[in-house]
User: Fold General secretion pathway protein GspK from Synergistes jonesii.
Amino acid sequence: MPLRSRGFILISVLFATTLLLTSATAFAWFARTEAKRAAARENILKCRGAAEIAAGIAGKKIAEDANGYDGFDEPLYAPGQDVRIEIGNYAVTVHMTPLNGKMPLNAILLPDGVTPRAEYRAAWNAIWEEAGHVELAQRVIDFIDVDDRQKLGGAESEKNINRPLSDLCELKALPEIDDAILWGDEEHPGGVARYLDVLGGQKINVNVAEPEMIAKLDPEISLETARGVASSRLSRPIKSLDDLRRVPGFPPALATKLANVIGYESTDFLLEMRVEPKGGAPRNYRIRVRRSKGSCMIEEWEG
Assistant:
């Protein structure tokens, strides 16, 4: 065989060998990558399963809390007090927080879906005024009410959803509302989201609401008085109108005036959860549950 032919064959063999080695390496890398992905997917599913079980256990503890109020002074909800749950090979840490400290946006209208609640009117206007857009107070009412009749100061358009909100971000369908208004900027920290919640019951839990939220409820409530409420509830939880009237500086007549929008218990709770599997990557979850009729059901899930 000519030397030239033997050289060509040798080059071909070397090329084929290199190609096979490259293919084998690529296949091994692909196999390892797929194995890692499969393990990661399995870990995600198992961690989520453990989180669901833990949410059920935590929800039972919340449902059994029947002392007439929900506040941060309770051991179950106190800052830094976590519940540790062992589920097979998973260690789950849960911190439970009572919600309903904000104005329930979908409850600012009466059951007819059209008429704004008189008790929330002052707070509603004050929230938008703080955001620097008081003109949007009535515009948003027209956006979510169920009819298509324009109210004084409002506006009706094709962009109006004319139904309760499922998420606060739906307000961005209004061209006048952007992220800065919703979530705040340097001039208006927190935005309207600091005071508004889409989910929740009909009332604001005065045992967990920020002083700034309490002060928004009526012009007669100063921020100093609202801070007094927040301080008082740590030593003596508020369970009734009489308890609220006894708070130093709180106008007694206001307790009656705001009776339909002030509450003492929470319907909604946040579960901040960390699931740590043995030999696997930990995962974090934020789960919102609603308490009703002696049980808790999951409303929202993040993670």
Q: What stands out?
A: The radius of gyration is 28 Å.
